[in-house]
Amino acid sequence: MHIPQGARRAGAPRVTLLTEGTYPHSHGGVSVWCDQLVTGMPDIRFDVIAVTGTGREPLAWEPPRNVGDVLSVPMWGEPPAGHAPRGRSRKRLAATYETFLEALLDPAAEHRFGPALHGLARAAADGLLGPFLRGDTAISVLTSVWRRPGLAVREARPTVHDALTATGLLEHALRPLAAPPPTEGVAHAVSGGVAVLPGLAALERHGVPLLLTEHGVYLRERYLGYRTAPYRWPVKAVILGFFRLLAEESYRRAALITPGNRYNRLWEEEGGADPAAIRTVYNGVDPAAFPPAGPEPDTLTLSWAGRVDPIKDLETLIRAFALVRDRLPTARLRLFGGTPRGGEAYRERCEALAASLGHAEAVSFEGRVDDIRDAYAAGNVVMLSSISEGFPFTLIEAMSCGRATVSTDVGGVREAVGDTGLVVPPRDPEAMAAAALELLADAGRRKAMGEAARLRVIEQFTLRQTIDTFRAIYHELADGRSSAEARPARVVVPAPAVTGTGSLAG
């Protein structure tokens, strides 16, 4: 799909946004952030390579005139066009794929990941990779690697079914390599993971500098997601090995990494990123667009805004609310936000939980709201219960609206809130309920916290600061004043432990 190009001013850099599951096909915090960038810099030409689900997703955002090409790269729709390699071409690709798998499964071979990935990227550009991965040779290569003595995964006795599953997952994950990469300007990946793949190809093939912005920690979220995924350990070893080494390669090759908070920076440094190549840039909002919310509701109410998704951990919020209601029987919980396609079962589970706890009539799922400010105004206290976040927009928007907040201590939440709200451990309904009750019992404290929160946003987290910073970065990278060419050799560092996720093999 292509959108007519907008005007571009002479001398302005050309920027290609690399997204996954967000702008311009989905709502959410990262999409808001992308929209802020493109609308805030009308003099800069933006293109978008958007990794999507099926490729049939409608646009959720109307891109402004300075957004030119929008290319949808479906991971789960029809496979990219191509043909199976034959003869020497197949042997070369099989050898490259074997090296790639060795890097994923053998710690002694991890240094081969980057060259092997770029070999696969060349095959994808020629239309060979997808058909190869859907063929028998790829299955045979994986089963052969799995059987090698000394590999820990061998002890789990991988099956042919495991090989089919792992190869299928890799085929889908590598599809973005078939997208035409940017040939000029700056490639700006707005998350880690598969969205970065066209940017790595652009750097390798055309020397286009890669800018990486992680809002949440992509690798950590994959660990969390695969904890309960219905796959045996051999499959998880392949897929999580891929995501870990892709994160390290992205950190090593990026010209600049701009995490949205210090927490992300720690993960990136542990993943091998050069500290000199990391620059923290906080998300920002326009305080004029999020003015004080006005009078609180008469009925004591907790409000929440976001997408209905397991990573937002609404189950903990609902359990906490049940404890609040034991003390305040008339209290309400209002949940604002859409349910992504495929997430209906999670919403139904949350509704069933509220009913089983005896509070169905007091918990309302209100769907998307036309004006998000109404969601913040609806509560005496605004809640955030996520198990993973970057620097959440809903939090700083609520702060700008002058509402007191209770948030889980994940990502950049503590950096955002400071002492203007209460922060509690994730997955702890008792602590969340205690904090909510503390604020619901003290209107004066809520008012003082809300006023301090708005002042904190005005002083530290304005949209203008964010836009000006990224404009300068785009010019800096386009002018060649920062380069990945002199990056030191990749240092393989084990990923940080993920607290509370349990065993991925379970």
TrEMBL record:
Taxonomy, superkingdom: Bacteria
Signal peptide range in chain numbering: none
InterPro entries: DUF3492, PelF-like
Domain DUF3492, chain residue ranges per copy: 14-275
NCBIfam families per record: PelF
UniProt protein name: D-inositol 3-phosphate glycosyltransferase
Species name: Streptomyces gulbargensis
